[in-house]
What we know:
The chain is mainly α. The protein has 2 domains: 4-66, lambda repressor-like DNA-binding domains (434 Repressor (Amino-terminal Domain)); 85-236, no CATH class. It has helices spanning 4-17, 22-29, 33-40, 48-57, 62-66, 85-99, 107-125, 145-157, 189-202, 207-214, 218-221, 246-262, 267-274, and strands at residues 134-137, 140-143, 161-168, 171-178. The strands form 2 sheets. A two-stranded antiparallel ribbon has the order 1-2. α2 (22-29) crosses α3 and α7 crosses α9. The protein is elongated and about 70 Å long.
Amino acid sequence: xxxxxxxxxxxxxxxxxxxxxxxxxxxxxxxxxxxxxxxxxxxxxxxxxxxxxxxxxxxxxxxxxxxxxxxxxxxxxxxxxxxxxxxxxxxxxxxxxxxxxxxxxxxxxxxxxxxxxxxxxxxxxxxxxxxxxxxxxxxxxxxxxxxxxxxxxxxxxxxxxxxxxxxxxxxxxxxxxxxxxxxxxxxxxxxxxxxxxxxxxxxxxxxxxxxxxxxxxxxxxxxxxxxxxxxxxxxxxxxxxxxxxxxxxxxxxxxxxxxxxxxxxxxxxxxxxxxx
Length: 276
């Protein structure tokens, strides 16, 4: 794993290679110029939100940014991330195990659950769980079909999945049935928590309810029709969609910067506040 000093040098080198000033870079990633200077000199740490924004700026994953052996010319497909087909298969199987028997869980709801799992994962950890791209459509985000469909067809051919259609409240509903269980060691604990959280919050919604709900999410709202939804918009989320308390995080980051510059309170200041 790269050290704090090495990370700062890497960011500085990449910035200078692109002939971008500290001021412009700082504005692009939502930091002050002094903070960027401290980061590049290895004197300031970077939290997960800042790390994700910096990685997105350079069009690489957080993993590449933190790996001292990988170079700036290594890029990911599509929305900065390469699809992990095995993760996608097992997320689908896991969802079906947990809630696939509910009558509302047709393909429409499944699409939205996948979207929230990936965007929640990106917001929390700087990387989507499956790496799938999602497209803005009239009734909410859907997986990029050219990447999604081959994976589904492969699952059907391998006897992992079955899809059938049925009538549900007078409309045609496409349903998925898992024919095998997911592979347990595919996910780590934090990934399981992300998936379980989405299932717990949203899996009881009908197709219409989850469509209306997702229309309030900033990544969908800020993307044009038929365009790929940028993962970085997850950092613009507000309640109830946001998985992080950004106001608190920015306040803590600002307080930490101030502490580093000014140091702790003097005894006189401490006594003053304690005696108020």
